[in-house]
What does this fold into?
Amino acid sequence: MRVLSHVILGGIISLLIFLLAPDIAFSSFLVIFVSSVLIDIDHYLSYAITNNDLNFVRMCKYQEKRMKVWEGLSRKQKRYSKHDIIIFHGIEFFLLVAAIALFYELARFILIGISIHMILDFIDLYFSEAPFYVKSSQLYLYFKDKDKKSY
It folds into this structure.
């Protein structure tokens, strides 16, 4: 899913939560919204490490080009393509934040934002006919994709 979609949909859902839960402060609404978008920073980290390039503009162009290639692949090609490891998009990171949320209220709102983001990503995976494991577990993805070719 593109970042703009996450900004718009994450903003709408965060606002609905804020409006429907009167005990949530405006600052908590902002944490939910920002965390629903900033989780995608792992795409930048993956690009920077893989390409040894810290230029954000080049990363955006690279991601856009890859997104167009991805959209042109068949369901079978998507299943047999190697996927980037994006460390914040998996159960491992979710469980870490959930454990921290047991002790820190701020982490609870971050977890809500992450949940919004991941639900949107799974909806996008469904409609793009991509395998769910891509965003389910990054450890599983690593072992499943280690011998595959990038698309």
The chain has a mean pLDDT of 92. The two ends are 17 Å apart (CA to CA).
